[in-house]
């Protein structure tokens, strides 16, 4: 482009000795030539856009062509504007012109980066099992635009000869102050990233909820892992939103992280005069009657301890779905009570023997 302008300068200089006419012709040819080049380039890009259709990278976002047009326009504006400024000797506004162009170019650059991130997120992150890349792309989507625009502003100010170091230092101090003021929020953000990287649970896992309302269900399914907080829907259909920082400081009980199969333990007490083997057989028969209780591994009844008024047995069964844990406990407890009543097996309750003695008082 510079060679073209240089060639025009020579031709116009040789064609006329009038300095004002030379400047007018140079201005006209510079603007007209730039306009013609822009029209040709614009039509060329439009033709390519129509021919490519939905092929390759272009199908991700048609804004790609708009970005190319804008960058080409700003590049043409840069060359033509620089030539005219130097032609008229207005070097005093040259730096301001460059500063404005830096700001203008930063917007299509930001848009191009966002389009590229969207492409990689759809074609790479969506195909992986881990959520680490998803959170990285989400963070980049939120902050990359601010970073690009801020960099452009700093470069523009530097182009104008303005010392940006005091502003940067002030921004650093302000950032520290904001960091202290929003330390809880920042802590939750960092904890959210660590949760997704460490993956103690994922969306759909069933975990214990220690902060559930009193008297309500104490476990639920993870429905969302956000940057600031995690949402858990309990079996009572209550959604509990827990800050990520609080989750990271507590023990996490995950029932489905490795498998939906879990073992359920159910305590059952019988009186001391009960035939233990008979009681075990009755309990195992009840367990076998439940279709969702696995036959392999087999159910087992063990003597857990000697209680104050009962022999404490414990039934241990395996189920395929951790979400049926409470259903299993309820079913076994209900059916064992009925079976014990039929078999004459007593379920004890605390008793106290009170002995009253009478003593004669001598007079």
Walk me through this protein's architecture.
This protein is an alpha+beta fold and 363 residues long. The protein has three domains: 2-176; 201-248, SH3 type barrels, CATH 2.30.30; 262-343, Alpha-Beta Plaits. The protein is built from ten helices and seven strands. It has helices spanning 2-15, 19-52, 63-87, 94-123, 132-159, 165-181, 183-198, 244-248, 276-288, 325-343; strands at 206-208, 219-225, 229-234, 239-243, 262-270, 300-306, 311-319. The protein has a four-stranded antiparallel β-sheet. The protein has a three-stranded antiparallel β-sheet with strand order 5-7-6, covered by helices on one side. α1 (2-15) packs antiparallel against α2 (19-52), α2 packs antiparallel against α3 (63-87) and α3 (63-87) runs antiparallel to α4 (94-123). The protein is elongated and about 145 Å long. The relative contact order is 0.06.
Strand arrangement within the widest β-sheet reads: 1-2-3-4
Tally of DSSP helical segments: 10
Distance between the termini: 135 Å
Number of extended strands: 7
Give a quick account of the main beta sheet: strands, pairing sense, barrel closure: 4 strands, antiparallel
Helix content: 55-70%
Strand fraction band? 5-15%
If you compute it from the alpha carbons, what radius of gyration comes out, rounded to the nearest whole angstrom? 39 Å
Order of helices and strands: HHHHHHHEEEEHEHEEH
């Amino acid at each position: 482009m510079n060679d073209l302008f240089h060639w025009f300068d020579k031709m116009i200089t040789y064609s006329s000795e009038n300095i004002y006419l030379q400047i007018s012709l140079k201005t006209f040819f510079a603007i007209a030539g730039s306009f013609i080049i822009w029209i040709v380039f614009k039509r060329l890009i439009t033709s390519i856009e129509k021919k490519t259709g939905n092929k390759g990278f272009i199908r991700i976002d048609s804004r790609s062509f708009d970005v190319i047009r804008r960058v080409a326009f700003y590049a043409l504006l840069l060359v033509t504007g620089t030539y005219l400024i130097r032609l008229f000797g207005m070097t005093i506004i040259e730096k301001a012109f460059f500063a404005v162009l830096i700001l203008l170019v930063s917007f299509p650059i930001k848009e191009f980066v966002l389009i590229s991130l969207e492409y990689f997120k759809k074609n790479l992150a969506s195909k992986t099992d881990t959520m680490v890349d998803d959170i990285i792309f989400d963070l980049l989507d939120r902050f990359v635009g601010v970073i690009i625009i801020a960099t452009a502003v700093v470069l523009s100010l530097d182009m104008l000869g303005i010392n940006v170091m005091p502003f940067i230092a002030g921004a650093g101090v302000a950032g520290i102050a904001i960091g202290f003021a929003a330390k809880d929020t920042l802590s939750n953000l960092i904890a959210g990233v660590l949760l997704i990287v460490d993956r103690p649970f994922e969306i759909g896992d069933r975990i214990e909820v220690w902060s559930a309302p009193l008297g309500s269900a104490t476990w639920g399914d993870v429905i969302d892992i956000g940057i600031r907080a995690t949402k858990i829907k309990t079996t009572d259909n209550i959604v509990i939103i827990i800050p990520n920082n609080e989750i990271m400081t507590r023990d996490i009980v995950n029932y489905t992280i490795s498998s939906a199969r879990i073992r359920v333990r159910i305590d059952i007490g019988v009186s001391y005069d009960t035939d233990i083997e008979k009681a075990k057989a009755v309990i195992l028969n009840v367990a076998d009657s439940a279709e969702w209780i696995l036959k392999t591994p087999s159910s087992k009844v063990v003597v857990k301890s000697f209680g104050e008024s009962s022999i404490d047995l414990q039934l241990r069964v395996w189920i395929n779905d951790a979400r049926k844990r409470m259903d299993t406990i309820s079913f076994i407890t209900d059916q064992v009570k009925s079976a014990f009543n039929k078999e004459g097996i007593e379920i004890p309750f605390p008793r106290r023997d009170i002995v009253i003695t009478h003593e004669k008082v001598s007079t």
